[in-house]
Structure formats: structure tokens, C-alpha cells
Design brief:
CATH class of the domain at 29-77 and 92-134: Mainly Beta
Strand content: 35-45%
Structural class: mainly beta
Helix content: under 10%
Oligomer: single chain
CATH architecture of the domain at 29-77 and 92-134: Roll
Distance between the termini: 30 Å
Shape: elongated
Order of helices and strands: EEEEEEEEEE
Length: 139
């Protein structure tokens, strides 16, 4: 055994997230009130059974995907204290985001920024562009 192991976490029936000790997504830091989203696999058929060509769903104004990472939230400005005896510690406080990792987010595509990271497509979305979340409470 070479010391590496694999863990599989089932987030929903559509998405299985492969986590390893050296997970490449751990290197990513999401800033502020933004979230990193991977699109869920769209249905490639219409309700009547017709097959849709690739890329049709990407043109829709509203998309859905799973939240992979979240930023720390909205930064709260700290009051300026002019006391010389205090240290120069700069403690930043944040109002946390409502979105959490593993949630299914329905968001506005017009506010999202598409990025490619190691061959996969992700979207960086501000929390204000998220319309609705679906969360499994027992995760």
C-alpha cells in the first residue's frame, strides 16, 4: 500500500464527488460572497422524448448546479481603534453565506463567470445571483 486512499461521498444521486487526500479543488480559495458551482447533468430529452443537441441547455438564462466551494461571506468593516497598547492584529469578521457546499443551486447565468480549471467547466456566482437552494438536511 502506497499510503494513498480514496473516499467516495454521495452528495445526490446525480453527483458523486471523488475526494482524495490531495484533492485538487482544495487549492482553490473562493473570495467574498461568491460560490463555485459545477453544473448538474442536464436532461438530454424534451418532455415529448426528442433528443436535444449538446449546448442547448447552456443557453438558458437560469441554470442549476452543485456548489463545490463557498467564500467566507460578506466582510464586516472593523471599527478603527486608536489605542497604542493594542497589537496590530487585524481580525476580519464575515457574515456567512446561506449557500453551503453540496447544495443544489438554481442561479442566473447572466451573473455567473465561466472558468475552466484542469479541464472542467465551473461557474463562479455571487450569492445574490442564486435564486433557490435545495439542501439535503442529513448530509
Amino acid at each position: 500500500m502506497n499510503g494513498s486512499f480514496y473516499i467516495f461521498v454521495l452528495i445526490t444521486s446525480d453527483l458523486i464527488m471523488h475526494i482524495t487526500p490531495d484533492n485538487r479543488l482544495k487549492k482553490l480559495i473562493v473570495i467574498g460572497d461568491r460560490v463555485l458551482i459545477r453544473l448538474s447533468k442536464p436532461d438530454d430529452r424534451t418532455p415529448s422524448g426528442l433528443y436535444l443537441p449538446p449546448g442547448v441547455h447552456e443557453k438558458e438564462k437560469v441554470q442549476q448546479g452543485y456548489i463545490i466551494k463557498t467564500g467566507p461571506g460578506y466582510a464586516i468593516p472593523m471599527p478603527v481603534e486608536d489605542e497604542s497598547w493594542k497589537g496590530e492584529e487585524e481580525k476580519i469578521k464575515y457574515v456567512p453565506l446561506q449557500a453551503r457546499e453540496g447544495d443544489l443551486a438554481i442561479f442566473l447565468l447572466s451573473s455567473a463567470t465561466e472558468v475552466m480549471y484542469e479541464g472542467e467547466k465551473y461557474y463562479i456566482v455571487p450569492q445574490s445571483a442564486i435564486l433557490m437552494l435545495e439542501r439535503e438536511e442529513d448530509l
